[in-house]
Design brief:
By secondary structure, the chain is an all-beta fold. It contains no helices and 6 strands. The strands form 2 sheets. The protein has a 4-stranded antiparallel beta sheet with strand order 1-2-3-4, with no helix packed on it. The protein has a two-stranded antiparallel sheet with strand order 5-6.
Length: 80
Amino acid sequence: MCTHLGCTPNWLAAENKFKCPCHGSGYDMKGVNFEGPTPRPLERFALSVNPADGMLWVDKTRKCQVELGQCDDPAFYLNA
């Protein structure tokens, strides 16, 4: 969610960025803000893949903030 007002940014592949449709905040691929009124980078949530069905799980109870150096835990990344 955008850290300005909580809108959901869209990935714009042609521009290689996330763009908030509400007020124009822009984020790079890592979620770092670089344009618009947003006050800070996007938050990250813990991720996992269910081995039984391959479904992606997003745990919104576990979040980290890039600017605070909290996102080193492997739970906040997926191997591609």
